[in-house]
Records
---
Amino acid sequence: MNGDSGLAELTAATAEFAAAREWQPWHTPKNLVMALSGEVGELTALFQWLTPEESAVVMRDETVAADVRDEIADVMLYLVQLARVLDVDLVEVATAKLARNEHRFPALPR
Amino acid sequence: MNGDSGLAELTAATAEFAAAREWQPWHTPKNLVMALSGEVGELTALFQWLTPEESAVVMRDETVAADVRDEIADVMLYLVQLARVLDVDLVEVATAKLARNEHRFPALPR
Amino acid sequence: MNGDSGLAELTAATAEFAAAREWQPWHTPKNLVMALSGEVGELTALFQWLTPEESAVVMRDETVAADVRDEIADVMLYLVQLARVLDVDLVEVATAKLARNEHRFPALPR
Amino acid sequence: MNGDSGLAELTAATAEFAAAREWQPWHTPKNLVMALSGEVGELTALFQWLTPEESAVVMRDETVAADVRDEIADVMLYLVQLARVLDVDLVEVATAKLARNEHRFPALPR
């Protein structure tokens, strides 16, 4: 799968998914922020007792890796939905912010 | 800007950004999860006192809208970096999870 | 039970609990902050789809109320443990902060 | 200060504080959970780049220690307020949960 070509499709798919279940009334920005926060909490729980070294090789254990991918997926799904209802382009705002950070945190001299 | 064509570029740009500052030692998965969580906390703070109705029109106020876009950008930047160091394709895992959710939560009959 | 007389006892009990399981090496401040954050995520998930009005009467449903109490308990347990390992008196710092807030946010005139 | 005798007083003081500013309409359980989550995010940010070893001695730096105490105070204040509006006794539920955990996670043999 091409991760690049899929973000617009994914965004549209989340809209169709919510509409097919008539979940739109619950998908206020406030509620989606909470849902995003809850999923980040579940992701955090997977890493809370790991040493930095263990966290660096967390994907070597296929069971844990599956859990990590699952929680990252949930976080991404709510972030995509939040951005959609707020009409925010995730890649555009992140790219612009990274550009601003280039100035805030100058690179080391080579 | 094309949000779709930019995710791979954004991912690469975050890698270059961290490398140019020699920040990689701090960018363990564990630390990036914490950074993601901290940014979601800042996003949450923007919505905590809003009614559902106020949250639905939060982008009408240009000052607040700029803050919301800024925090969403920070969340996206750390999510992209976390996915990069874990070698997870954000769109792929989210698309796959959405497909699984189609079965877990059947759509309403038409 | 007297909630007041129990905070010092609770704090001591969490220390004994961790020691009896030899969990102290995992209970660094960093890890306990993550554990606290993860539990707040679970608490958040209980409230994410509720309207403000529903959230105000959430304790009327005994099943949900039990879940809420359980998650609040987990949050409190990790906050108590974090404060203990950092040698922070929870009531003292919160009382002092509230006093500072009295000045930051003046009360309405009567 | 006696941390034990102060929790009931602190709880009452937060009620008076909110009433004097007529903030009660905003202090729904849902909103207080979000506020708690936002403060935990700020606390998380203080620890995100620290090694476990650095986090263990974080209070040796008086400036950082003051920030840590300040964020823990904010977390405690919102937790106390959430518990108050939900009529939950923080020490009671945490003590009861710890007792249940004694059974879920048996202590090591001596």
---
Amino acid sequence: MKFCSQCGESVTQRIPEGDNRHRYVCDACEVIHYQNPRIIAGCLPIHQDKILLCKRSINPRAGKWTLPAGFLENGETTAAGALRETSEEANANAEIIELYTLFSLPHISQVYMFYRARLRDLNFSPGHETLETRLFDEEDIPWDELAFPVITQTLEHYYQDRKSNSFPVRSLEIVIDRRH
Amino acid sequence: MKFCSQCGESVTQRIPEGDNRHRYVCDACEVIHYQNPRIIAGCLPIHQDKILLCKRSINPRAGKWTLPAGFLENGETTAAGALRETSEEANANAEIIELYTLFSLPHISQVYMFYRARLRDLNFSPGHETLETRLFDEEDIPWDELAFPVITQTLEHYYQDRKSNSFPVRSLEIVIDRRH
């Protein structure tokens, strides 16, 4: 950030009065431009014993398999965002069962949320950011070709929890210390 | 938003190619300025049978009682943000038990998260945004003087769940349709 989005003058980084962190502050109009983590909402789409995965057509991790997920939009609930992304990336018609995993990724200022969801039908197909959509049995999950640790961990928890048919919400952290 | 924070030229609202929503886009450098919901993280601070509440010194809802909570910062986990806010608003030393409530508030593009937390000691006191900090028994909770619906609902669920000593994570929505 170099310029104030309100008045167009230059911003500088400093600690505003009463604050304890560096913020971008406009030298002209004094507006403080806060920057905050973003939410990525997605689904774990389930059909009987199978899970729907999407092969990514875009970077990062093009060609790797993911659960449908993307940035939550203003004006949207987290569940609505998860269903929208499932529709956009897999053209899939799903319904929310319940929140399942929540991950903090502080090194990239992101918070991921995955909902367990039921596919209403099998009319799914690749969306614009997807090369392929496919239902996987547990034994066919491409563990070495999953796009992100949040995908791997959500699937691992799911197959573990499925044994007891109990799916408590799991609040998790993926912490990578970039100073080392 | 009127100006591009990268180059200082004017932005206009339009639907970028491949997108389906209006965004602020720079007419000069073509940067797309996405705007996304923000996370508010907080604690339900517990000491034996009591809950710590804070009387707000600032608007909105100055003079009303709240749980310590505030905007999650970049580089922070949701649990760390909840503890930081508990420290800043109540000078309280707490430890996380577990995630408890998660609320989508789409009309203001916010997502609230409250963690159940245990007070490590009773050395709490008002922070800068707080007039008073006090431990409340259930029968003394000032239900008519609580600051926000997310506070009321978190406390209601807690006292209900405490009867069975089972505290499942609750994913909730507070939807206010501003068109009416």
---
Amino acid sequence: MSKVNMLAHRMATKAIQLVDASGNPVVGKEVEMKQTNHEFLFGCGIFDVIDVANKKVPADRLAFQEEKLDKFLDLFNAATLPFYWGMFEQEEGKPRTKELQTAAKWLKDRNISVKGHPLCWHTLTAPWLLDMTNEEILRAQFDRIKRDVTDFKGLIDTWDVINEVVIMPIFDKYDNGITRISQDLGRVGIIKEMFAKTRLYNPEATLLLNDFNTSINYEILIDGCLNAGISIDAIGIQSHQHQGYWGLEKLEEVLDRFSSFGLPIHFTENTLTSGHLMPAEIEDLNDYQIPEWPSTEEFEERQAKEVEEMYTVLFEHPLVEAVTTWSFSDDGAWLGAPAGFLRKDNSEKPSYQVLKKLIKEDWSTNHQGKTDEQGVVTLEGFLGDYELICEGEKVSFKLEGSGERVQLVL
Amino acid sequence: MSKVNMLAHRMATKAIQLVDASGNPVVGKEVEMKQTNHEFLFGCGIFDVIDVANKKVPADRLAFQEEKLDKFLDLFNAATLPFYWGMFEQEEGKPRTKELQTAAKWLKDRNISVKGHPLCWHTLTAPWLLDMTNEEILRAQFDRIKRDVTDFKGLIDTWDVINEVVIMPIFDKYDNGITRISQDLGRVGIIKEMFAKTRLYNPEATLLLNDFNTSINYEILIDGCLNAGISIDAIGIQSHQHQGYWGLEKLEEVLDRFSSFGLPIHFTENTLTSGHLMPAEIEDLNDYQIPEWPSTEEFEERQAKEVEEMYTVLFEHPLVEAVTTWSFSDDGAWLGAPAGFLRKDNSEKPSYQVLKKLIKEDWSTNHQGKTDEQGVVTLEGFLGDYELICEGEKVSFKLEGSGERVQLVL
């Protein structure tokens, strides 16, 4: 009972009226209503799609990669694709547009919502920016946004517009074009410019600010952006927990602080590993590179418990609209960490099964009923897409939080 | 030579033409030009003025307090007076307006520029705000600004509008009315409101944002405020160094970071003690209360060196326009620290003498010259007020960075 109440914001109760082609109520018939998708975005980074969709996977690896993607599709309804400038356009003027379009379309065809990550970031940015003046860098960045946001409109309508701005102007590990222009524009200034440009070329898109910094720094930055009139559609929060699970207390504290803006929150990059913890003294996660970081049975149990707890807290929170796990499989995972839901051989870890149970069973609706004299059957279910089956006929509909009754023509 | 260059922004070279009452040049006369005040604000907290100006000092202490103020007047040209709401208006509706006006006038009559500190702060705020709704607290805060800024216009035209906003909404040592409304408005929101109201009632005033937090938090907050269109006249930086002198490196690093906004910088609350250092593990300086915190000869020498170095760096920095030392004397100093330029018996510490030499000798101009055939004598000097003496006559003028030659009528 208390669990249902905690999820009330994820559900709706609605009268579904069935009529025939002539508009007459379909009376006294058995119906089955089965949820086929969630409104909530259960996402994952899935860069492997690019080679598969573009048929670039070596023959001896194809079955393996296809199996991996099947398991991805069994669980998730959202994907993040990489748009790191330095990789997307390694050579100036030769963007990997076609390849990424093919990947995005592959996902879209399979009912997966796609996010592009990121349009502006100081890491993995184009090295050739370093040969430009700051004015030229800014123009190149604007052109990049115009080109990519336009080229992917309809395929990708959610963007991490700008990434890690808290550290951007003081990032000093190596010189790069984006840090240079962020110093000129200031933090709020560069966010303002990048959001304005992205909005211009895809006004309906969902635009995120994204950061790994969950301290007061990020709060103050968001506060400044909102007061400066920047329209942020969702606050992106990274949660790479290679150094240990935040735990309930920190998770709730972070949610509490970032909820104060009243904006949707996306957990954009979640990592919970099934291996030993990265030492706490490592400041930049990228500095921890080891030859072998094994997934162990003991830690797989821990990961499953943490995944269950964390996803439950996030799904229960009214402002969270998306959770994206960063690495789907240990095969190719960031930093070589055992951060996936699959092991390197594609076998499912307990975390995969736990999450599948949550998404596909506990938080999914499968309802059987009988239409009344008005042809109405009442559905209380989780928000999302449904398939209604009656007398061998199949109709699709969407269960939304708002709106009147739904009328379906069989 | 290099020293002169470092101070070029504090100086001007100008032709001063002397004419007689009929407008004829005063030719070939010896003139003496003596600086009487600085454009730069050398300030100090000097709350003792209130009782002296209001004749409330016990008879047996009056000579002592007068001696203290004489030494203050010998050194400084700016003062900070306290407007802590909980002390200024301990009982609702009974503000200490008259007393503070008398004190501000006492200072103004002695050519001391006065700043009011602060109009909005969560510490030392009026306890009776706690009985109000948040809407009422905000209205009371607005009314307070309207009343005090209006009542002191002309006497006090510089205000620390709002103090320590970085910590304000998360301040949790005790409940208070200002933290409550800062949570409603957000950081940039409360700054925006308080600046707007202060500006409304004294459009020409110099308005400061002030904070002890010199981290990236404060940078991001200022960036947000500026992007939100808040017109901050000067960035206030507190530098209470009870736990040890920042040193050149940190001082220059802080100046560097806060210079990026191109705004004037005021060091609003400077403390360098002549005693042992407060332990580093103390987080809130207010938590360190000891019965006796002696000033020692050894540490007085250290303080003098630190004062000399710090004031020199600040005076050389083109964006710094004011330095205010928080405690003029150990007698009554904040936290009982030996933080003054005077010892408890009014005797001058080496720091007093060092600073006096800087302000009154090294950075002060006293020029003798002879008018030429046009009655002109050239003055290269530090910006500020001057007295010109020629043939027993005395004329006052201001040496400013901009503008044409100065014509004076003897």
---
Amino acid sequence: MGEIENILEFLVETEKLKNILRKTRPVGLSRRENSAEHSWHVCLAALMLKDYANESIDINRVIKMLLIHDLGEIDTGDTIVYAAETAELKSAEEEGVKRLLDKLPEGQGNEYLLLWREFEAGETADSRFARAIDRVPPLIQNLHSEGHTWREYNISKEQVFSLNHRIADGSADLWCVIEKKLSSAVDKGILK
Amino acid sequence: MGEIENILEFLVETEKLKNILRKTRPVGLSRRENSAEHSWHVCLAALMLKDYANESIDINRVIKMLLIHDLGEIDTGDTIVYAAETAELKSAEEEGVKRLLDKLPEGQGNEYLLLWREFEAGETADSRFARAIDRVPPLIQNLHSEGHTWREYNISKEQVFSLNHRIADGSADLWCVIEKKLSSAVDKGILK
């Protein structure tokens, strides 16, 4: 029973992801999105888009990866994807993930720490697809709101195309559709 | 490519779950919780508690079920679990789920409609466990906030024990731990 108690404590602590605010706003809403609801949406996106992965993937592993991929932010906060990724930040995020997973019964957390690292490294088919999917909701949100974070943070079209091209590493078909939408946003002057 | 477009439209429409407010508040926060962040948290809870299911379960199916279990609320809103469940409400929720799934490419939505119905019926090992897990976060949230929804909606201890006893159908071990916490809340006068 002590083990279930430990898991419940982990679940209380992970509630804090609901208070980690991202830069983007959900479609149709004026408030900022939090990393917990984002995590749900990327899992749903991965599930529905699984057939368009470039490589053979294990969608169940991808979903587990996406369920936990932002847990490190509880200790570090969210960072805009266009900011330079420093080794210090990644190290702090990993420490945060470890702190949370340490609350789980002995031996249970390690699987998820390895999954988190795999996602961060992006060197496997599953993590390439998961990282591609992680980019989809913020692009959709910008495309549906006149590019609110692109404007607010002065993100250029060059930055948007360059960074999000990683979608093609996970799903060339998906990038093809998204790239057209981004080009159309450039034509409309939403993305400059 | 038309199929990916359809899936992206589905993903835009499901963003609305982020605006469906539940009665409970996340631990430590004064705002109400939305059904999207709740959906993330129950998926994480199911994953971490999977070894305590009474029966042999397929955790990947359970997680898929929980990812989509609240989608019907986009059209109907959230209803407190202690309210009488009417056939009209369930029918309206199913219509809502169908409306969303109809946005997916042909043939893709049916699997999830069946999963949604399986969750609602609660007659399989996977759905019994999923339904047990779905009760855990709101109880944790109440136990950590002096029973805020119990007080606000005049929910008696008899109602709380009677309704949440369904946790035992999915995991007797989990119910054993939760039941003790609820009894302790009664002793402290938080639950009356």
